[in-house]
Design goal:
By secondary structure, this protein is mainly α. It has a single domain, classed as Ferritin, core subunit, four-helix bundle (Ferritin). Helix content is 78%, strand content 0%. The protein has five helices and no strands. Helix 1 runs antiparallel to helix 2 and helix 1 packs antiparallel against helix 3. The chain starts with 7 loop residues before the first helix and ends with a helix.
Length: 170
């Protein structure tokens, strides 16, 4: 199916970001496993949910490419970091991942604007808005973890996260 052609520069950026989303999913899954091992069940569940969300983001890139007659190229995913010294370090890792994702989305959008690729611009505008939310929650998570360093504070925060996620499921 031919679809609306994709400029090679834009195609390269969309393929790169697709794989960056898959890598982020892998990273979040690793964070979830580390948290589960550290008996931080709320954080584990949250990071597992984020892993699924990043996979959905990759699917959006795949669907966009396929609808435009392009075969998505799925690259190798580098093994994620699996060891952290603290939940604070893990939270900062997630924050850095979201910042990197924002840079990637912005780079893809800039290429789409330069090449006047309107369909890619429209699709990427959703991701730009999404990254504002993602960076906001990452910043909030780092801040909350830093403030929860008192005895029992981290356990209370973990239970709070678990409770919020349960409420969202209902």
């Amino acid at each position: 199916m031919p679809g609306i052609p994709v400029n090679p520069t834009v195609l390269k950026e969309l393929q790169r970001q697709l794989n960056q989303e898959l890598s982020a999913s892998h990273d979040y899954l690793s964070l979830a496993v580390w948290c589960a091992n550290a008996n931080l069940k709320g954080f584990a569940r949250f990071f597992k949910q984020q892993a699924a969300e990043e996979r959905e983001h990759a699917d959006k890139f795949m669907d966009h490419l396929l609808s435009r007659g392009q075969l998505p190229e799925i690259g190798a995913v580098k093994a994620p970091r699996g060891e952290f010294n603290s939940i604070q370090e893990a939270a900062k890792h997630a924050q850095a991942m979201e910042q990197k994702n924002t840079v990637g989305v912005n780079s893809a959008y800039e290429a789409a604007v330069r090449e006047n690729d309107l369909p890619a611009q429209v699709m990427l505008q959703w991701f730009i808005s999404e990254q504002v939310e993602e960076e906001d929650w990452a910043d909030e998570m780092v801040d909350r973890v830093q403030h929860a360093q008192s005895p029992g504070g981290l356990a209370q925060l973990d239970r709070h996260i678990e409770r919020i996620l349960r409420e969202e499921d209902n």
